[in-house]
């Protein structure tokens, strides 16, 4: 089996240390060769982000530049239409081939909403899924919507070995350093004129200040 590539999508509005620790710890806990960060262009699950997709991409590029295992994929930002994860994974499959082991990285909150994603059942044929624990969001079948709980129970494996045994199809969870940081919290702090320092990289905060982002609710 080939090396295992992580795929990390998100709005990253803005990117923060919760995202960066998730990615860093996924590499070591799951044995990934690297992670493709894929900022969403026009996220289907949310209203218009408060900054442009290009600015969110620029912040992800700044925060990941020093890490040789992190790669940033601008395709969703550059696309004209709505970004769906299933289509992004299909594109990666075409690019990387049927044998490449792919793992979609999601936080526990995002995973619990998976059954609302476009063509969500097709995701399992395209990638495995690794769910990172997040404060306030338990990862267990009992707390998931019924159809997702069914898939979770069928596909969940107790350790990461399954990720390298097949290109797609299993679900694992992993405990990361618990950081109750969210982009929502950061946006609120900035709108209120309060400090968001030490919740996100200085390079990102400098960019936000330079471009005067997140000033209005
Ligand atoms: P918002 O507050 O705007 O909803 P967010 O902080 O959840 O944003 P996203 O860009 O929506 O950030 O998240 C991208 C991915 O990172 C999702 O899978 C999400 O679950 C995960 N994630 C974000 N913050 C954390 C965190 N502190 N711990 C674990 N996972 C996280």
Task: Describe it.
With 217 residues, the protein is of the alpha/beta class. The protein has one domain (4-179): Rossmann fold (3-Layer(aba) Sandwich), CATH 3.40.50.620. The protein has helices at 17-30, 53-64, 75-78, 85-96, 108-112, 123-126, 146-155, 162-165, 183-191, 202-210, and strands at 4-10, 34-39, 70-72, 101-107, 128-132, 171-174. Strands 3-2-1-4-5-6 form a six-stranded parallel beta sheet. Helix 2 (53-64) packs antiparallel against helix 10 (202-210). The chain is globular and about 45 Å long. The model has no long low-confidence stretch (mean pLDDT 94). Bound molecules: adenosine-5'-triphosphate. Adenosine-5'-triphosphate is lined by residues 10-13, 18-19, 22, 106-107, 109-110, 132, 134, 179, 181-184.
CATH-level-4 superfamily name: HUPs
The proportion of residues in beta strands is: 5-15%
Name of the top-level CATH class:
Alpha Beta
Counted beta strands: 6
Which kinds of small molecule does this entry bind, naming each only once? adenosine-5'-triphosphate
- What distance separates the N and C termini? 48 Å
Q: Please give the share of residues in helix.
A: 25-40%
Using only CA atoms, what is the Rg?
Answer: 17 Å
What is the average per-residue confidence, as pLDDT, rounded to a whole number? 94
What order do the helices and strands follow? EHEHEHHEHHEHHEHH
Specify the structural class: alpha/beta
Alpha plus pi helix count: 10
Sheet of most strands:
6 strands, parallel
Q: What CATH architecture label applies?
A: 3-Layer(aba) Sandwich
Any idea of the CATH topology?
A: Rossmann fold
């Amino acid at each position: 089996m080939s090396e295992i590539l992580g795929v990390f999508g998100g709005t990253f509005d803005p990117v923060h240390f919760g995202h960066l620790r998730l990615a860093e710890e996924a590499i070591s806990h799951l044995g990934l060769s690297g992670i493709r960060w894929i900022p969403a262009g026009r996220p289907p699950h949310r209203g218009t982000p408060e900054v442009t997709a290009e600015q969110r991409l620029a912040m992800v590029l700044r925060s990941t530049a020093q890490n040789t295992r992190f790669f940033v994929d601008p395709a969703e930002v550059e696309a004209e239409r709505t970004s769906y994860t299933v289509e992004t994974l299909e594109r990666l499959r075409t690019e990387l081939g049927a044998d490449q082991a792919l793992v979609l990285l999601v936080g526990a909150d995002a995973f619990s909403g998976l059954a609302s994603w476009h063509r969500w059942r097709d995701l399992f044929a395209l990638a495995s899924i690794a769910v990172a624990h997040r404060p306030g969001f338990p990862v267990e079948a009992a707390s998931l919507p019924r159809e997702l709980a069914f898939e979770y129970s069928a596909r969940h494996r107790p350790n990461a070995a399954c990720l390298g045994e097949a290109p797609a199809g299993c679900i694992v969870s992993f405990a990361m350093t618990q950081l109750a940081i969210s982009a929502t919290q950061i946006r609120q702090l900035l709108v209120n004129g309060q400090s968001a320092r030490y919740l996100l990289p200085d390079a990102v905060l400098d960019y936000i200040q330079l471009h005067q982002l997140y000033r209005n609710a």
